Amino acid sequence: NAGVMQNPRHLVRRRGQEARLRCSPMKGHSHVYWYRQLPEEGLKFMVYLQKENIIDESGMPKERFSAEFPKEGPSILRIQQVVRGDSAAYFCASSRAEQGLAFFGQGTRLTVV
Amino acid sequence: GIQVEQSPPDLILQEGANSTLRCNFSDSVNNLQWFHQNPWGQLINLFYIPSGTKQNGRLSATTVATERYSLLYISSSQTTDSGVYFCAVASGTYKYIFGTGTRLKVLA
Closest-CA residue in chain B for A96? Predict the structure, then answer.
């Protein structure tokens, strides 16, 4: 029973490029959450999605960031025109129910050069 | 919103020593998890413990929900225990609030 799968594990982008981070939730989980961890800090909530719907994006920066969870395929966190301040670890979590136990993936480390 | 404080912020131990990490939270919670983030950045779930006591090998955790704190015990520490330990809570919602972590270094 595979856990939450994130890829890539490491991603390097030049300033101005686009970053796409992927998250496949655990089998049977339809609730996906994205968190961001800046260097030397704890994780902070970004967005909560269910299949084809964004439920809560209150933690997402207003510009350049978007997320989706299509009917088929993984959830995608997309960062357009990356800047150095976007360098961070991005973690995805999934749960079976909205307030259920959330399982976290191994994270994607984004480095913007 | 709910506040989560962890102590101590930093801890250095000699291999074989025991330690207690604390997590205080400012409101009642229905979800609480302890995580270990290893030096490679991987986040490993240790315990799901909104209340009560659990044990897993050398690790155990206790949450006293009525007094709004949780403790993580590490016995006979090993160098592989090094990393950052996070407490994360959720209160009637899906959003986990993470503490700032306890940075543990175990010396050989």
Answer: B94
